[in-house]
C-alpha cells in the first residue's frame, strides 16, 4: 500500500461522516488527524458550505469577499490592470504583475501566473475581452468583491493580507481555504467564523427555507468533518 494511502487511512480512521461536531471539536480533530497522517507539507484547512440556493437564478447568487483575521497562510500572487499613477500605486502596494496591453497579451496567450486579478474601471473594457480565459478560472475582476476599483492600494493590500473570495457553485456549494494545519485552534476557529458570518450576511433575496444547510471542515489529506452550523456562527 502506498505511503500516501496509509497516511490517509490513518487520518480517516473512525471518523463518522454523519456526526455533527461543534466547531471546537472539528478543529481539534482535524489537527490531531493531520499529525497522525503526517505529511511533509502544511496542509490547507478548507470549509465547504451547502447553501439552500440555486445560483442559476440571479436573485439566488451568493458572492463576496472576506478578510480573514489570521490570513490564509498562503501568499497570493496579485496582478493588476492599471496605468499611470494607479500602476505606480499598485506596484508600491506589492502587486506582483502590473500592466495594460502587455498584460492582456500575456493572459490571452494562456500564461496566467497569478492568483488574484485586480483592475481599475477604466481598463475593464480591455479586461472584459478576456472573459473566456478568466471566467472559467474564477479570475475575472468584479466590483462586488472589490477587484474592480480605483483604490488599488487597498485591493492589493487586502489580497496580500488574507482576503478570500467566495462564490456559490452550481450546486449551491461554497469552498474556501481558511488557513493551514500549522495555525492554532483559535486562529482557525476565528477564520471559520469570519467566513461563515460573511456568507450568512451575503444571503440573497431569493433564498427560501434553510439558507445554511451543511458545513464541513477538511484538511488537504484528511477527512471531512461535519459541523453544527450554530457552533460556527460569530459569538
Report what the structure shows:
- It is a single chain.
- By secondary structure, the chain is α/β, with parallel strands linked by helices.
- Helix content is about 35%, strand content about 20%.
- It contains eight helices and nine strands.
- The strands form three sheets. A four-stranded antiparallel sheet has the order 7-1-8-9, with helices on one face.
- It is globular, with a radius of gyration of 19 Å.
- The N and C termini lie far apart (about 45 Å).
- About 5% of the residues have low confidence.
The poorly predicted ranges are 7-13
- Structural class by sheet pairing and helices: alpha/beta
Listing every helix as H and every strand as E from the N terminus to the C terminus, the arrangement reads HHEEEHEHEHHHEEHEE
Largest sheet: 4 strands, antiparallel
Strand-residue proportion? 15-25%
Using DSSP, what is the number of strands? 9
Helix content: 25-40%
Shape: globular
Spatial order of strands in the largest sheet: 7-1-8-9
What's the mean pLDDT score? 89
Nutshell version of this structure?
This protein has 235 residues and is of the alpha/beta class. It is built from 8 helices and 9 strands. The longest helix has 17 residues, at 185-201.
Features of the shown structure:
33% helix, alpha/beta, 9 strands, 21% strand, 3-stranded parallel sheet, 235 residues, globular, 4-stranded antiparallel sheet
Layout of helices and strands, plus pairs?
Blueprint: H1 3-12, H2 23-36, E1 44-51, E2 63-67, E3 78-81, H3 84-93, E4 97-99, H4 101-108, E5 116-119, H5 124-128, H6 131-134, H7 152-161, E6 163-167, E7 173-180, H8 185-201, E8 212-219, E9 224-227
Parallel strand pairs: 3-4, 3-5
Antiparallel strand pairs: 1-7, 1-8, 2-6, 8-9
Helix pairs in contact: 1-2, 3-7
